[in-house]
Design goal:
Elements: H1 8-33, H2 37-55, H3 57-86, H4 91-95
Protein name: DUF4229 domain-containing protein
Transmembrane segments: 12-32, 38-56
Organism: Amycolatopsis echigonensis
Length: 96
């Protein structure tokens, strides 16, 4: 398979939790200032999600790289399956 372990599920989970935590922190700060909770949550979403793109840039890049790697391996497997369905044999299949 691959030499490096797949950290995509862990990275994605950490990234999502961090983004929601950032929204919660913004909402809590606004509600402590006296903004109504629903308005604070809405402002937290509007401000927190783009702010997360800036503050969590490294984690975002790891998640994006992991998704690209997963999509690449799926595309390779799909191409191999299609060639097998057409009856073509690849160099890997003839060596086995």
């Amino acid at each position: 398979m691959s030499e490096t372990p797949d950290h995509l599920p862990r990275d994605l989970t950490v990234y999502l939790i961090a983004r929601f935590a950032l929204v919660a922190v913004v909402a809590v700060v606004l509600s402590l200032v006296g903004v109504p909770l629903l308005v604070a949550l809405l402002i937290g979403l509007v401000v927190g999600l783009p702010l997360g793109l800036l503050l969590l840039r490294g984690l975002n890049q790891r998640v994006t790289a992991g998704l690209a790697k997963r999509n690449e391996s799926r595309a390779r497997a799909r191409a191999q399956l299609r060639s097998q369905l057409r009856g073509e044999t690849s160099a890997d299949d003839s060596a086995a």
